[in-house]
Amino acid sequence: MKITFQINGTAQTVETDENTPLLWVIRDLLDLKGTKFGCGKAACGACTIHVNGEAVRSCSYAANLAAGQNITTIEGLAVGDELHPVQQAWLEEIVPQCGYCQPGFMMATAALLEKIPNPTDDDIDANIVNVCRCATYYRMRKAIHRAAAIKSVNQ
Amino acid sequence: MDHSAEQDKKGKSRRGFLVKAAVGVGVLLGTGYLTRPVWRRSIAGMVNTADAPYVGDTKTPPLWFEVTADNEIILRSPKVEMGQGTFTGLAQIAADELEVAIGRIKVVHASTASGNIDGFSTGGSTSISSLWMPLRELAATMREMLKNEAANILGVDVAALSVADGVITASERSLTYGEVVKEVKEWDIPAVPPLKDVSTYRYVGQPIPRVDLKDKVIGAPIFGMDAVLSDMLYGAVVRPTAIGSKYVSADTSRAEGMPGVVKVVKEKDFVGVVATSQMAADNAKKAIDVTWDIPKTWELSDIEAMIQVGQGTPYVIQKEGRAASILAAEEGIITAEYKSPIGAHAQMEPNGAVAHVTADQATVLISTQVVGLTRKEVADRLGFDQEQVNIQPTYLGGGFGRRLHTPHAIQAALMSRAVGKPVKYFFDRKEEFQNDTFRPPTHHVLKAKLGADGLIEAMEHNVSSGDVMFGSPILPGILEPIVGADVGAWRGGMIQYGKIPHYRAVSWRVKLPFATSWWRSLGLLANTFAIESFMDELAIQAGKDPVQFRLDQIQDDPAGRRLQAVITAAATRANWQDGVLPNGRAMGFAASTDANTPVAQVVEVAIVDNEIKVLKVTCAIDPGLAVNPDQVRSQCEGAIIMGMSAGMFEKMIVRNGELQPTIYGPYQMALMRDAPREIDVVLLAGTDAPGAVGEPPLGPIVAAIANAVFRLTGQRLREMPLTLV
Ligand code: FES
Ligand code: FES
Q1: Average of pLDDT values for B706-722?
Q2: Judgement on whether residues A21 and A68 belong to the same structural domain of the protein
Q3: Average pLDDT rounded to a whole number, residues B477-483
Q4: Are residues A69 and A97 in the same domain?
């Protein structure tokens, strides 16, 4: 079937089986490789994107549900050359190791900051539940606080 | 991004450059596998936790560096980047000797076609330490080559030239490196010039941001999973779920006609399917019925019965004095047993490959830690010469030892050959968990006798473990008879307190029915958990402070003094106190030396809702010269939390013939909520060359936590994952 949605500010129409996970539409049909496959079962968060601003695990989100929605991936998080505060904070804290999980964490964090602009450590623990095997959690926590600070200054 | 175009472009310029460089690629290709004594020393080096030499070219700068017309320097790294920060360290070292701003250096993964091949692997925490001297020499030589050519072009004496940031200047004329290279038809490689004094380096020793940082923050397509070749199809392979399964036959009739299916590929040892999309390949895979030969339905109890000190073949790996006879006494012997479970790698990027095989060429883009071995295996199976196969390594979405075995490259290649088009193939997560090359389970028996002075008179560590090294195809069979004991399994298994008069370590080797192999830090994690928990038990029995108890029994030699220094540094920095603290917390202490790098850790633990909560970790490490102190810290932070994860949560079991669980969550791992809110890393530099960093900090963490838990609860937890009763 044909499915039309907004992704990173552009309207896209794709031809796909309705049950295909949105992750494969994003990665293979639209060639946006920043959204990662980790488990395919909503268990790791590597595939996290935003659907209408909400964090969603795209490996477990059927493509047909995307029709008419507004989708953002890591590639759409920055505005032009200007990194999103979360990316800026990740850069300043030198968070990534292998980097594979990081887009998912940044997308989850960006969505969290829209809901809770200045999260406490407990808020972070409760809401950021992705998996990072390199275990960069210590720097991620610092980066999340930093992102909140950058964002509040920017506003 | 279309990798093929990118690849072609690079391939052409690279070939051009190699011709100019007049490099005998054939000769270089041999270095990895043919110079066996070096290779053997390399292994012996790892075995003895001493320096492992780099196995590969160290003499041919044009193989390593390519200078572009716009004065960018491409450094073709034979070591892969899996998060450990090696690319950044290499860029720092090269920039200093090449005399360029680090921003001019672009580190890429060397393809095998480039000829710059690591003859061994990326692993063992050796990338920076083994390349420290060779890369300095290569970069310094490259700089001299550029100067020599510049002198020719400018018609001046080389002594009259000065260099700054990639620009060579005679009195009034200047040439960039890029301009020099344009004029060079063939390089003369001079003798290695004197190296700069380390104290004059601008980048080495500085906490500069990782060179791959921006790419990893914007989500650039740099991983094996992201690789694309034009006209690419998607493959899937039916994998067994039961331990010991052998492929017999497959009924593919249902899959053949399914939508999107291009071809069902039957080989002697597997069946796969190639389709036009990932979804179609996955669906068709599910419709294939494979008959497996499964000789036995294994249960966890079978495995546990095998992993027992006293079973299998014992190898004495350390012996000083008469420990065995002293500890055979009927009375006054302190004994304890420890256990660790089967551990999964669980790296976030699944294994896979993109392969394109034509009649006489094969290209494979892949996350691999064994670039040369991947090439050899693909070539052997295809019946190609190795030179007909090009392996293009990509960034790894985690390595941890999992990418030291890459048979999936062969499967991708065979599927590509069957359809005549590029094929992308990777594992799903269940396949990852059931086809892992696991960290073997272990059983430890420790014995000791305290002397009248309260110090240890005799001590023995017995460890039973599945294979680590011998389970791996990197090390062919020749090593087994030479070494006997599996050196990977006993990494960290030796007793590091040299003042003990009598001590002994024995490794019991067991061959398990599933693959066990390298897992970050190998035996260090479990062995240190056992030995350092036992040291704590002994200190308590002796009525001594556990930090002082250790310090008193370390021998007075260079390694001993470095170990004492990290122990003292960690204890001082953490304000070490034995016993329960006023705030209801307790500290725990442990130390280890791995690959010549000593590490000591103090943890602060609380019990919250009957769960162990690690609040703070202080880690003192002496990694020698820290090429990038920030990356050393980053590695310590990650290793500590990964070690906590393995020590507190992770456990694979065997049920009804299958390894389980098969997904994150049920395979419980440390998450954000489990990470300590404070990690304080103290860097000591006890030697003037870089040492191991990526694995040593995993050593002490589990024992340190268990030791703290004992102080808080009186429960001595002797089994990983640590679980309160
Ligand atoms: S890939 Fe979607 S949650 Fe793991
Ligand atoms: S940085 Fe490697 S998995 Fe998170």
Answers
A1: 98
A2: yes
A3: 62
A4: no
Q: Do B638 and A135 touch (CB under 8 A)?
A: yes
If asked whether residues A55 and A91 sit together in one domain, one would say no
Would the CB atoms of B347 and A139 count as touching at under 8 Å?
A: no
Domains, chain B, with CATH or none: 3-215 (3.30.365.10), 224-293+351-426 (3.30.365.10), 301-343+437-713 (3.30.365.10)
A27 and A68 inside one domain: yes
A15 and A49 in a single domain? The answer is yes
CATH number, domain containing residue A16? 3.10.20.30
- Judging contacts by C-beta atoms under 8 Å, the chain A residues touching residue B215 are 99
- Over 70: is that where the pLDDT of A84 sits? yes
Last residue of a domain, one of A28, A50, A76: A76
Which run of H or of E encompasses B703?
Answer: helix B701-713
Q: Are both A123 and A148 inside the same structural domain?
A: yes
pLDDT band at B483, cuts 50/70/90? Answer: low
Place of tokens 């020698």: B624
| Nearest C-alpha in B relative to A142 | B677
Strand partners, B653: B660
Kindly determine whether residue B398 and residue A94, on different chains, have CB atoms separated by under 8 Å: no
Whether residue B406 has pLDDT greater than 50: yes
Q: CA-to-CA distance for B327 and B250, rounded, in angstroms?
A: 57
> A29 in ligand 1 pocket by Cβ < 6 Å?
no
pLDDT for B22: 29
Task: Say how many domains are in chain A.
Answer: 2
**Chain A residues inside the 8 Å CB shell of B1:** 31, 33
Report how far residue B92's alpha carbon sits from residue B690's, in angstroms, rounded to the nearest whole number. 13
Question: CATH number of the domain that A132 lies in?
Answer: 1.10.150.120
If residue B107 lies in a helix (H) or strand (E), which one and from where to where? strand B105-109
Chain A hits for B209, CB-CB cut-off 8 Å, are 91, 94
- Nearest CA-CA distance, residue A48 and chain B, Å: 12
Res. B476 pLDDT band, cuts 50 70 90: low
Q: Is A71 in the same domain as A99?
A: no
Q: What is the DSSP string of chain A?
A: -EEEEEETTEEEEEE--TTSBHHHIIIIIS--TTS--S-SSSSS-TTEEEETTEEEEGGGSBGGGGTT-EEE-GGGTSBTTB--HHHHHHHHHT--SS-TTHHHHHHHHHHHHHH-SS--HHHHHHH-----TT--HHHHHHHHHHHHHHHHHH-
- For residue A59, give its domain range: 2-76
Share of chain B above pLDDT 70, in %: 91
Distance from Cα B57 to the centre of ligand 1, integer Å = 41
Token pair for B516: 């066990």
Nearest residue in chain B measured CA to CA from A104: B219
Q: Which of A59, A76, A93 is the last residue of a domain?
A: A76
Q: What is the mean pLDDT of residues B689-710?
A: 96
Query: Is pLDDT of A47 > 70?
Result: yes
Regarding the beta carbon of A100 and ligand 1, being less than 6 Å apart is answered no
